[in-house]
Amino acid sequence: MHAWPASEVPALPGQGRDLRIHDTATGGLVILDPGPVARIYVCGITPYDATHIGHAATYNAFDLVQRVWLDTKRQVHYVQNVTDVDDPLLERAQRDGIDWAALAEQETALFREDMTALRMLPPRQYIGAVESIPGIVPLVERLRDMGAAYELEGDVYFSVESDPHFGKVSGLDAAAMRLLSAERGGDPDRPGKKNPLDPMLWMAAREGEPSWDGGSLGRGRPGWHIECVAIALDHLGMGFDIQGGGSDLAFPHHEMGASHAQALTGEFPMAKAYVHAGMVALDGEKMSKSKGNLVFVSKLRRDGVDPAAIRLALLSHHYRADWEWTDQVLQDAVTRLGRWRAAVSRPDGPPAEALVDEIREALANDLDAPAALTAVDRWTAQQEQHGGTDEGAPGVVSRAVDALLGVAL
């Protein structure tokens, strides 16, 4: 599976700072000091509907991570998956009377278009669950053979008790985990499981659903969590720098994935930091496909909204915050974009070196994009009120906003 084209990242004078970022597992800031190649895995979409603003906010956060690392003169090895076979996708395809694979391909293509328009830097590997099955099956077999997994009526489950570190990603107690498991794709009430929290690794073939050869596992399809583990271990190995996604993935997805990987390898932790973006609401409720209260990036673009304004709307909220999308949020972003573009179009302006430093410091401090925007606003206000004498300043500001914030002026 291919990703989307990369937009050029302008080179800036000097060098950025190492990233300090909030780690869900420890509950505090960690200073990440990757080697020459920073490694990040971000969980991708289940492609049964178009990219909504909640998706865009999450991928915007991890795009900023890439840009901070690139500004430190590191390379970035970014991997993202596509869960192109799963219950929600199959249910939507059946509801609409279309082939599930065609639906997945259609929505993945639209996601690529949205990411390109928003200037999100693409992953080095962009990999679907279906193409990963040959690598998933041996991992499930290994977990079973080492006693970390068991069979139940043809399905194979992971035993959470096989990982002594289970629970350290989310920090939740068993009661909270059980509630979230039931809400987020688990089956804690299924009779016969060793532990209600045990997640499925391999689902035996069901009538009318797609299935693949699972070797000694029989025909079936992979569980949700093992998919990401197989892809991450194959391309990044253990101990990569950031495991990222929305805050709703901390449990069960990232918790279970970490335990799968740790049981398989005997190493801890799977990732140095677990980083989670907040949820976006609409009309007082979390934006989600199940509720249908969605604002689609593609529709905004069709309506003539500049993708740079959409991105500025996302950047105006801290990535970890839960916030609400409104018409006013978008209008404020459109206004800000117009002011910034007018400012950098002038032949000279106030010196920009201090501004670049402010943007770098804000982003290095747990991706504080709102602080970075405020710094650019101040420079813009100076330009509007007093002008300036530095002929190179508008160009420096334009390149810095592009390179560090992903907004083309």
Number of strands: 14
Regarding CATH, which class of the largest domain? Alpha Beta
The percentage of residues in β strands lies in 15-25%
Sheet of most strands:
5 strands, parallel
Major beta sheet, strand line-up: 5-4-3-10-11
CATH superfamily of the largest domain: HUPs
How much helical structure, as a percent, in the residues?
A: 40-55%
CATH domain fold name of the largest domain? Rossmann fold
What are the SSEs and their pairings?
Layout: E1 20-23, E2 28-31, E3 37-42, H1 53-71, E4 75-82, H2 87-96, H3 100-117, E5 125-128, H4 129-145, E6 149-152, E7 155-158, H5 174-183, E8 200-204, E9 220-222, H6 224-235, E10 240-246, H7 250-265, E11 271-277, E12 280-282, E13 285-286, H8 297-302, H9 307-315, E14 323-324, H10 327-344, H11 353-364, H12 369-386, H13 393-405
Parallel strand pairs: 3-4, 3-10, 4-5, 10-11, 12-14
Antiparallel strand pairs: 1-2, 6-7, 7-8, 8-9, 12-13
Helix pairs in contact: 4-6, 6-7, 9-10, 10-12, 11-12, 11-13
Give a brief rundown of this model.
With 409 residues, this protein is an alpha/beta fold.
